[in-house]
Task: structure prediction
Amino acid sequence: MASHASAKKSIRKSEKQRVVNLNRMNRIRTFIKKLEKAIADKLEKESILRAFSEMQKELLRGVSKRVVHKNAAARKISRMHHKVKVAIGDTI
Result:
């Protein structure tokens, strides 16, 4: 257990930041699931593209907040882009 005041403060800060990062990751996962559901339900093109745009925006926001690594985000966006292309049947 921490014995110095600065170490105790560090523990408090890291716990608060952990909760914030957890919420950010949950939000990103939610947007990914929304896109996957839109593709699975074969919704119209506009709603799939809107879901993709929101998912991409949220992932890039996670990168800027340093919750997701930029290469991991790029990989996820690329894979979802391919799924969207297959679902709507043309290029974006």
